[in-house]
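User: Predict the complex.
Assistant: Input components as received:
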Amino acid sequence: MHTHKSTLEEVAAAAGVSKMTASRALRGAPDVSIKTRDKVLQAAERLNYLGNRLALSLSSQRTDLVAVVVPSMSNIVFPEVLAGISTGLEGSGMQAVFGISDYDVTKERNVIRDMLSWRPSAIIVTGLDQPDETVRMLKNAAIPVIQIMDLDGTPIDFNVGLSHCKAGEEMARALIAAGRKRFGYIGSALDRDLRAGKRKAGFERVLHENRLAFIGQRLGDTLSSVSLGKYLTHQLLSSEPSLDCIYYSNDDMAAGGAFASMEASRTDDILMAGFNGLELAAALPVRIATSRSPRHMIGEVAARLARGSMAPNAPSVSKITAFVPEITGIV
Amino acid sequence: MHTHKSTLEEVAAAAGVSKMTASRALRGAPDVSIKTRDKVLQAAERLNYLGNRLALSLSSQRTDLVAVVVPSMSNIVFPEVLAGISTGLEGSGMQAVFGISDYDVTKERNVIRDMLSWRPSAIIVTGLDQPDETVRMLKNAAIPVIQIMDLDGTPIDFNVGLSHCKAGEEMARALIAAGRKRFGYIGSALDRDLRAGKRKAGFERVLHENRLAFIGQRLGDTLSSVSLGKYLTHQLLSSEPSLDCIYYSNDDMAAGGAFASMEASRTDDILMAGFNGLELAAALPVRIATSRSPRHMIGEVAARLARGSMAPNAPSVSKITAFVPEITGIV
DNA sequence: CTTGGTATCGATACCGGTATCGGTAACAGA
DNA sequence: TCTGTTACCGATACCGGTATCGATACCAAG
């Protein structure tokens, strides 16, 4: 199409030195005189030389690539984790490569396999509920495996996140302490979003401890969304008007619930509770309860672990980094 | 850490054949007997063999990598584009690699350079306002360059998106036709988000054509968010109570505006207009106007172009794919 | 029995860099 | 003058695959 991609060999020839010397000069390695270095740099500039990381990585046996597998890109949660990873990797010379699993274990396995074949220096995956085969593959890769978001399970190497079970429990406790008594639940596709399921289970456990239970619930089968939350809330409110609190699978759904409560003029006697602590939640005209999950921070910590694993004198980092979500929005 | 990564050579040895034959067997290439193929496959299975794409790509001179550079991950727009790219690439054997530029041209240049050094088969970048140096680099890469989101400018190779100038113009025309007369504007960091600036410019042009102008405006200097939109709207409404319509840099900001209008009990006499057509916008308890941008579709089309560029018999695709955003929410 | 075609496989040369080690020149000290 | 360092540079062997071409075996046809 356009011009020709120049190689190190050509740069070396143009500078009148050997390939090896050119390589050293461009990398700023020692054993190169100033004069030679300048000659090479100029030649590289002139030829628009752009290194070839394939060759570099193959030769040096390190890719400085961090593979990242997340289940979805359709709500803001995982993109924020990715942003966190991106910041955390900044200045390290490492590159993140992302893959999406669509909450599908088979797809996840394939994505992970594809990523591993690039021989990344570390891999970050979401959750720790991978099937045995996937775990075997990950262990076999002989690189640090960083499992994020979830803490409820047995990690392979590193684990950064929070306990969704506990998050659900704490939210239930806080709501009960605030005097709520008649609970409903609204969620979507819990068979796929395992973490939402764990939150619900934790919530329900505490309800039972207090001789309570969900009076009514609605489960959607599509991806979570504000509209879905709103729609299901209207349904639930009309069939169970006595509810004074609804727990949602996440903040998107809860925001929809808040809108529904406004439309039904129920904002004063019912409280919606979600999960994530989205920016949106704080701006809503009606207060909703939520657990703030440190998404960006989880990404940053995961990135730091990936970087650390490259450092020769890796300080002994803790294998598990646990965050405790702060609950807000309960009057 | 764990086990040893096995190579093709080892698989070949274990199967009692040459490296070359093993390679052919694993790729399903011809010239391999069924019996030999099975032997190799079994050996590979036994050794947990995982191909090495670095070596593969270096040797075959094609990476099947699609580099993608987006400015941000902190609102849902670009993640949805990435999701679109991901779906569009599915089944093609191509892998997307993402980079974030943070709306910073210098950072964008660096990210692009880093990505190009992986020798991707195509590159997708956001917008067509790259500085000359970056354009030169992109052209020099000798791969198809796909510029997305924006149409207002001169593309390098391919262009998929919509005209933000026109989007602004059309929105203004629609709002004026609906009887709105006293306009305000609320945005944020327009020096960085060039497309939002173009929409504003288009909007303003039409206002002028109709002997109108923004009566008041507020510009934030942080990233756009619902809270920021709400905050600035409260400010603007109190200083310019006569407004009957506010144009926002995007839907996040406009949603914040909608919340502010509710809190100020102004929902009946003022209309908020945004851009993107977010899912959230449709669920809001108060209607806002918006232009629906086909984010997922843009990603899919871009991915298709990236795939097509690999096909030997590339059908002559149009260099420019233009979308016209549909305007909704105007009563 | 020779010839020719087909099926199957392997040897060798890359791809574009880096690691390693050895060589040369210049300069210091004995 | 001889020897030992140090600074600088290049030849060679990889890294782990694929492309290419040639070799071998087998079978049918002449």
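Residues 17-21, 24, 30-33, 36, 55, 57-61 of chain B lie near DNA strand C (CB under 10 Å from a C1').
Let me know if you want any component modeled separately.
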